[in-house]
Amino acid sequence: MAVSNDVLVTALQELLPGYTESWTLFHPAFDALVTKGNKRRVDHPFIEFVVLPEGPGSVTSIINGDEHINGGRRQSAVKGSAYAATMVYAFDVPGEDLRMANGPADVAELIKKYPEAGLMDFQERIARQLVMGDGAQVGQFFTLNGDTTYNPKATGAQQGMLEFVAPTSQTSTRFGIVSNSITNWHNQYAHTTSMGADGLKQIRKAYWDASQQGAGAEGPVDIMLADRDSYDNIVDELTDFVQFVRRDADVKAGDPVPYRLREGIAMHGAILYPEPQMDRSLFVTPEALEGVIYGLHSDALKMFTQGSGPKTTGGDFEMRDVGRLPYQELFRTEFVLSAGVYATDLRRNFAVTGCANP
Fold first, then answer.
1. How far from chain centre, in Å, is Cα 283?
2. What is the reported pLDDT for 323?
3. Alpha-carbon separation of residue 95 from 98, 142, 323, 331, 341 (angstroms)
């Protein structure tokens, strides 16, 4: 007996909440933002945020009691901005596949064959864009790679968040603010020519340079992402001391991603993860070609999704109603992502290059 499109749609609607949630669980960087409560939904097209590059106040010493107390705030605060990138992933389920399906087992197979595979493909593209900036057909989404740009709303190219040069030499514009045009608007950076010589020392240097910028209030850098060669070199250097961290205990219902993709090692207050989407041969900066590690402070990063209400589809990989294409025996399914990421404090994030060198 053939399975109707309504049956497939009903099954998808029951399963979709788990799949929708899985996109933030899918990648440890997104998961950290959600865990820290740094993801929200907005109804306007872009975000403006205040950047405080240094403490906002002044101190007055009291000697006699008649001193004038210095108040107000330092006039160094500036506004940054970020736009959400809106993307629709669409695929078609042939009516003939529905016609040939017979019973719950065949429906489950169809879901694995089309919607589940489609959502995983979409998420993999976003993960690639996050670390490399060259995700297929998703190039308008945010990227960490300072060697490239992204353009969320065709308003102009935005530079990737982490530059691979010393802080004082950084000149790009990130989130609407020119690097070093205000105090501390830069990311930390270190380079090693040999992992065996001083690689761990340079990682520690960048980690503490970034972590000490806000450790008193919000803790240290908590997420590190490395290309596979750099990760393997680090594990080899730490063989006698390495502690692998598995996050399978945190996997939530409906999350189809196995824990093995989230296995990392503990380094100081962070977890270092191998990033399968990172291809060091495609970086442009010569030092980055020798391996890259991103260090992220999830409290200094924010993520927002756009769209809600009866006339718009929410931006959390939400599914639109399935419908038959006119004049074709095909049923169209669409997933919608409308999301952006921005940094409120660049100096609390870092990049280290050269760790793929033995």
1. 18
2. 72
3. 5, 36, 11, 7, 38
Distance CA 155, CA 164 (A): 25
Q: What is the DSSP annotation of 273-339?
A: EE-TT--GGG-SSTTGGG-EEEEE-GGGEEEEEE--STTS--TEEEEPPPEEPTTSSEEEEEEEEEE
Cβ(305)–Cβ(84) under 8 Å? yes
- At residue 277's C-alpha, the angle toward residues 271 and 283, to 5°, is 100
Structure tokens at 134: 């060259």
The model's pTM is 0.85
Position 8 scores a pLDDT of: 61
Q: What is the pLDDT of residue 75?
A: 64
CA dihedral of residues 108, 111, 114, 120 (deg, nearest 10): -120
Contact 235, 241 (CB under 8 A): no
Which residues have CB under 8 Å from 216's CB, separation 6+? Answer: none
What is the enclosing helix (H) or strand (E) of 5? helix 5-26
Pairing outcome for strands 223-226 and 270-274: parallel
- The pLDDT score that the predictor gives to residue 246 is 60
Distance CA 317, CA 305 (A): 10
Contact between 217 and 343 under an 8 Å Cβ cutoff? The reply is no
94 φ, ψ (degrees, to nearest 5):
-65, 135
**3-state SS assignment for residue 343:** strand
Three-class SS state of 292: strand
List CB contacts of 98: < 8 A, sequence separation 6 or more: 2, 3, 4, 5, 8, 110, 331
- Supply 159's token pair: 């530079």
pLDDT of residue 329: 77
Residue 185, number of CB atoms within 10 A of its CB: 23
- All structural domains of the chain, each given as residue ranges with its CATH number in brackets, are 5-51+80-353 (3.90.1690)
Instruction: For 353, list phi and psi in degrees, rounded to 5.
Output: -120, 160
Where do we find the tokens 């990227």? 143
Instruction: State the pLDDT at residue 249.
Output: 45
What local confidence, expressed as pLDDT, does residue 183 receive? 85
- Find where tokens 């040939």 sit: 100
Regions in the chain scoring below 50 on pLDDT = 1, 249, 253-254, 256, 258-260, 310-311
